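Subject: sequence -> structure tokens, single chain

Hey, anyone have a minute? Need the predicted structure for the following. Not urgent.
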Amino acid sequence: MSRLAHALDALKRHFGFESFREGQDLVIEAILGGENALVVMPTGGGKSLCYQLPATIREGTTIVVSPLIALMKDQVDALVERGISATFINSSIAGAELSARLATLREGGFRLVYIAPERFRSDRFLDALSGTPVSMLAIDEAHCISEWGHDFRPDYRRLREARTLLGSPQTVALTATATPEVRADIATQLDLGDVRHFIAGFDRPNLPLRVAHTKTEREKLARTWRSRRGRVARASCTPQPERRSTRSPVRSDGTGSASPATTRASTTASASRRRSRSWRVVST
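Reply:
Had a minute. Here:
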């Protein structure tokens, strides 16, 4: 059976799909062939499947580096529901649960393990990882590696050292947006050598764009909430007074359907997780 045929069989068996989205087959075939890959694929284009599916086929553990705790949990929950052994190890777990996950990792009991880049600073994690056969390192939001990237994060710059500690396993770096300069910097910073580049474009057909003319900020927000009646709407604000002014028109828009809530840097992790879960429930 060819690599692609094997991948298609695993796609149907584990994920329930009959075919790949545009560009996924080329990336997965290269990964199954043992090549390092740098993947630029739009949000919603199926980047995560490009490393999740090979992880179900190959022996060993795939380490997935992701900067977002909520995204880790969502992806791990979806994988576990499909019967794929996966977990995340981050600041949201501790004590006996953390010990149990590290023990299973040490025994090679996970196909995929999601971590934040800062996790490589933990001696306890590195000790558990030392006896684990790592088959692949997948780096999501890889633009964070580059000092030219628009979301630079220092611990991403240390992933080259982490990759060396893992024995320089096959590596796939993925992002939705990266200029040629950022792509070159990612490859250099990770020491990927002769890496395959896959550029799937930036069109995002699943994200509709609409323009509405309004005279004031208050009118704009009220109109947004009305158009999202019964669904989730989010507004990003920086200063606290701006958050307060955002909540006000939501409460007074007359629809009776909005229940505004804010998160901020000082919000505790547990409160932020509860609020995030409530948003997801409302939007399903």
